[in-house]
Amino acid sequence: MKKGLVMEGGAMRGIFTCGVIDVLLENGIEFDSAVGVSAGATFGLNFKSKQIGRPLRYNKIYCNDKRYCSINSWVKTGDLYNVPFCYGTLPYELDVWDGKTFYDNPMDFFVVATDINTGTAVYHKCDNRDYTRDGIDIRWIRASASMPMFSRPVEIDNKLYLDGGMADSIPLRFMESEKCDRILVIETQPADFVKKPQKYMGIVKMFLGKFPNMVKVMRDRHLMYNEEKAYVRQKEQAGEVFVIRPSVAPNINPTEKNPDELQRVYEMGRAEAIRSLEGLKQYLA
What is the active site of this protein (predicted)? Predict the structure, then answer.
């Protein structure tokens, strides 16, 4: 039996996922393959490196630090989340990411990014074993979480990438293509959530007009997202996948600066995971 894990993004809604994966780690629940999108990649990698509490900890400590996330960084560099700090100073000096454990862990770990020229999702397997500051896998993880308009596209092998959630927000079908028999999906919105059309297409075109396929993907993203939510629900009702999601909307700012709010959403994730734990164990058995 092959077990898979799917982690949705959603900016700081991803702190909900942090609560879930910490409970999984504490209870020794493992998977053969995992895929993370956006925050599901940047926070979810800590599941593979087995670092309980790490993303909550550094977000609470640095959420108000201008080196981490600020309008000043966006104006000066084009990145709301400052790249040298977020992908250099923080994980390699201040709250160290355990790259050795990450790569020694046999679980396959994929991240999703969107090719801004084609508008299609690209699935990268993080198996390069280069855990230096500018390692190829770190660049793919950064690409997966690079929010359109608030981040510069990430160049990898002469191609440009942005947030994977634009093209594939909940990559259950990808995990099914990996031939997983049992799949846990961690969503960051309630079951009845319906995404609405992008309100600011004029601004999107201003920033990304040179990439018409990316503009189209963002225009139609709500259709893709709502279809994927429905597909997850269909599979869940058929007993083919197991889902852990918030019972109510997390209602957290995408760039939340209040540590108490981060803790609140993290505890939501823990509570849902604990409530689902016995059912999940039976499903995975």
Answer: 38 (nucleophile), 163 (proton acceptor)
Catalytic hit among 22, 33, 38, 168: 38
Judge whether 163 counts as a catalytic residue. Answer: yes
β-pairing verdict for 159-163 and 154-156: antiparallel
Q: What is the pLDDT of residues 33-75, one digit of tens each?
A: 999 999 999 999 999 999 999 999 999 999 999 999 999 999 9
**92-121 exposure pattern, b = at least 16 Cβ within 10 A, e = fewer:** eeebebbbeebbebeebbbbbbbbbeebeb
User: Please, what are the domains in the chain?
Assistant: 3-284 (3.40.1090.10)
